[in-house]
Amino acid sequence: EVQLVEFGGGVVQPGRSLRLSCVASGFPLGDYAMHWVRQVPGKGLEWVSGISWNSGRTVYGDSVRGRFTISRDNGKNSLYLQMDSLRHEDSALYYCTKDLTTTVTGHFDDWGQGTLVTVSS
Amino acid sequence: DIQMTQSPSSLSASVGDRVTITCRASQTINNYLNWYQQKPGQAPKILIYLASTLPDGVPSRFSGSASGTHFTLTINTLQPEDFASYYCQQTHSTPFTFGQGTRLEI
C-alpha cells in the first residue's frame, strides 16, 4: 500500500525558513516524479513544485519560484521542500503527492495527509 | 499560465440526482485534464484523468467529457458518499493549475 507521510510543518515568522519532509513507503520512490501541492484550509488547491525521478528536472509555481527548493533522496525514500523567505500567504496545508511516471506530468495519483505551515509573527 | 475556470462554485443536490460540473481552460490543453474529489478532512483523490478516463476503483456513475477547452464532470445517480468538493486540473504545462473548486452539498 502506498503511504506518504509529511512532517516538518509548524508556526514560523515571516522571512524565516522551514523544511518539509515526506517519507514514502509501499513503492520505490525512485520510480516516480513527486510534487508538493498546498491548500489553505477551506480553500482551493495550488500546485507548488515538482521533481523528476532523478532530480534532473525541478519545476515551481510562480508564487514560490526563487524562494522554495524541492529535492529528494531516493535512498532514504524521502522528498523535501526547503521554504525560505516565508510570507503570510504561504500559510497552508502542504501535501506530498506522487506522480504517475518518472517524469513530471502533473498527474497526482497518491497523496499524503498533509503538514500544516503557519506563517505568523 | 493556463487559467482554469470552474463552475458552479457550489451546488445543492439530492441523492439520486444527476449533476454536472464544468471547467474551462484559457487555452488549448489537448484533454490534459484531471478531476479530483476531496471529502472534508481528507486529501484529494483522483477521479478522472485525460478528461474521460476513470482510474481503477472509481464508480462508473462518474464520467468526464471534453469539447475543445470546455470540460465536464457528470455524476449520475448521486450517492451519499459523493457529497464532497471537486476540482479540475490541467496537466498540459507547468504551472499545473487547478479550478477554484465546486462544493457539492445536499
Could you write a compact summary of the structure shown?
The complex is a heterodimer of chains A (121) and B (106). Chain A is an all-beta fold and 121 residues long.
Describe, in plain words, how this protein is organized in 3D.
The complex is a heterodimer of chains A (121) and B (106). Chain A is mainly β. In chain A, 0% of the residues lie in helices and 48% in strands. Chain A has strands at 3-7, 10-12, 18-25, 34-39, 45-51, 58-60, 68-73, 78-83, 92-98, 110-111, 115-119. In chain A, strands 2, 4, 5, 6, 9, 10 and 11 form a seven-stranded mixed sheet that branches. A four-stranded antiparallel sheet of chain A has the order 1-3-8-7, with no helix packed on it. In chain A, a hairpin with a 6-residue loop joins strand 5 (45-51) and strand 6. Chain B is mostly beta strands. Chain B is built from no helices and nine strands. Chain B has strands spanning 4-7, 10-12, 19-25, 33-38, 45-48, 62-67, 70-75, 85-90, 102-105. Chain B is globular and about 35 Å long. The chains are: A mainly beta (121), B mainly beta (106). The A-B interface holds A 44-47, 50, 59-62, 95, 100, 104-109, 111-114 and B 1, 32, 34, 36, 42-46, 49, 55, 87, 89-91, 94-101.
